[in-house]
Amino acid sequence: MPKAMNEIFDYLNGLFPEAGLAFDESVPCIIVPAASIKEVALQARDDQELLLDTLMCLSGVDNGDETLGVVYHLDSMTLRHKLTLKVIVPASDPHVPSVDRVWRIAEWHEREAFDLVGMIFDGNSDFRRILLPEDWEGHPLRKDYQVPEFYNGMKVPY
Amino acid sequence: MGLLSKQFDDGNIVLTSVEGVLNWARLCSLWQMSFGLACCAIEMMAASASHNDIMRFGVLPRPSPRQCDVMIVAGTVTLKMATRLKRLYEQMAEPRYVVSMGSCSNCGGPYWEHGYHVLKGVDRVVPVDVYIPGCPPRPEALLEGWMRLQEKVRDFTLVKQEGEHA
Ligand code: SF4
Question: I want to staple A121 with a disulfide (CB 3.0 to 4.6 A). Which of A2, A92, A98, B18 is the partner?
């Protein structure tokens, strides 16, 4: 049976009463503390009631208030329902456990989020930049990013 | 002056300059490096297809820079690509030419202000012979650019020009 997002929240909250999950009506999404994201992800994938087998998208967000966010868009091929999870971490210490062992595709998405926004995914099996050159400095989609004057001797601004 | 300075009535003999023949041969077989960088490459491919048929100008796409005369920079040059593009240019044998196709490679195009990763004009890393404006330029514009390049090759001379340094 497909479930609505608030039903999934009630179900997950019953399974992880200690974890401190919260439901955000406005988006809607479930806000998960960084420490619990891996457990919740594994449960969401394997639980017969949820079977969220596909990670459609993993994005990184700079919220602009000294926090960074990671958004997980999940889909169940068999039960045909969707779920959005969100993790919010402080920009000064942006550590998030990796979910690349839960959904294999997360490896590249997490590398992209790191490359452009700069959160650190602990446990990602190949953690390095994916789009920008290895020697690039900074994370360009941060709100406070300054475009460098030069890159390898090439002038960058117009 | 045309290619043939003098033609005799009894056939079989024409007079011209060595330079004229060499330039004519070169401008009719400018080989192109086959690579594209972004959306402009689609128009470049359209120029090679049957409707516009750039091959009638003697253009052959070659997969190796060693065999090419012309590099068509068709698309957005990112800073990451710019270092590779320069390397490819250096691998081409002289005389070599660069055609910058489209706004992106001319000046950064739509990314001129917020493209932290885009080179604002390919002429910052390699010398450009012909600029073709447009986003993207139509295949006809590429053909026109190509004919401009041919004019440039036609005027090439081995003789030292007045005021030129040795
Ligand atoms: S000039 Fe326009 S069409 Fe060409 S590569 Fe740039 S954005 Fe694409």
Answer: A98
**Residue B76: CB within 6 Å of ligand 1?**
yes
Report d(CA A111, CA B123) in Å as an integer. 32
- Per the structure, the count of domains in chain A is 1
Residue A73 within a domain: yes
Beta bridge partners of A24: A29
Task: Output the CA torsion sign for B42, B44, B47, B48.
Answer: negative
Q: Distance from the CA of B120 to the center of ligand 1, in angstroms?
A: 13
For residue A76, is it within any domain? yes
Question: Which amino acid is residue B74, in one-letter code?
Answer: A
Report the alpha-carbon distance of residue B128 to residue B100 in Å, rounded. Answer: 7
Select the residue of A133, A147, A157 nearest B80 (Cβ to Cβ).
A133
**Secondary structure class of B10 (helix, strand, coil):** coil
Residue A73 has pLDDT above 80, yes or no: yes
Measured CA to CA, the distance from residue B33 to residue B96 in angstroms comes to 11
**Nearest Cα residue to atom 3 of ligand 1:** B136
pLDDT in tens, B53-92: 999 999 999 999 999 999 999 999 999 999 999 999 999 9
In a domain, A96, yes or no: yes
Q: Give me the domain span that covers residue A88.
A: 5-140
Closest CA to B90 of B75, B71, B107: B71
With a 6 Å cutoff on the Cβ, whether B110 touches ligand 1 is yes
Among B73, B135, B142, which is best to mutate for testing ligand 1, by the most ligand atoms less than 8 A from CB? B135
Does residue B94 have a pLDDT over 90?
A: no
Q: Specify the CATH number for the domain of residue A89.
A: 3.30.460.80
